[in-house]
Specification:
The protein has about 170 residues and is α/β, with parallel strands linked by helices. It has five helices and nine strands; from the N terminus they run E-H-E-E-H-E-E-E-H-E-H-H-E-E. It has two domains: about 60 residues, no CATH class; about 90 residues, Orthogonal Bundle (Arc Repressor Mutant, subunit A). About 35% of the residues lie in helices and about 25% in strands. The chain has a three-stranded parallel sheet with strand order 1-2-3, with helices on both faces. About 25% of the residues are buried.
């Protein structure tokens, strides 16, 4: 797993795209205040960069990625994230299984409703959104993110599982 190097503030937009895609990144702060560290997959270093410190920070981020990208699977309502086991309520288990089957791809709202409620869709317009919010709370801190894709559905990212490139 590679860590993406990003110059700050020159590549602020790229940094945001990488964050949204849950890609590991090392920010090289060329001027000003470093961006807030809001997740485990980002670190920063000031320019000019000392080669030894750069290598240490890259290795540290790679270790974090390995910790978060451990095998993820779901079986009979139990989500395994590395050595952690999470027992999911039935609806969240079906949603997680559907999203995990198609990780890193958008899963349509209709597909999620059909899979979460096989006997028929529930009454109410935002029931799916409520259950996705519950799933997000359960997954908090596991390295699994569920993002909304406006008017289309949801996408699940397992942090560090997608390949990335170094600048």
């Amino acid at each position: 797993m590679d860590v993406v190097l990003v110059r700050w503030p020159a590549e602020a937009e790229r940094l945001e795209r990488l964050r949204a895609a849950a890609e590991p990144r090392l920010v090289i702060v060329e001027q000003g205040t470093p961006p807030l560290a809001i997740d485990e997959l980002k670190d920063w270093i000031r320019a000019p960069v000392d080669e030894t410190e750069l290598q240490l920070r890259l290795e540290n981020l790679r270790r974090r990625v390995l910790r978060y990208s451990a095998a993820v699977s779901i079986d009979d309502g139990v989500l395994r994230v590395g050595s952690r086991l999470l027992v999911l309520p039935p609806i969240q288990a079906r949603l997680a299984a559907t999203l995990l089957e198609r990780r890193h791809a958008v899963v349509g709202r209709e597909t999620l409703v059909r899979r979460a409620w096989p006997q028929g869709p529930p009454a109410g317009r935002n029931v799916l959104d409520v259950h996705i919010a519950k799933l997000r709370r359960i997954l908090d801190g596991t390295g699994i993110l569920v993002h909304t894709v406006h008017r289309r559905g949801y996408v699940m990212h397992v942090i560090g599982s997608a390949s990335s490139s170094v600048l």
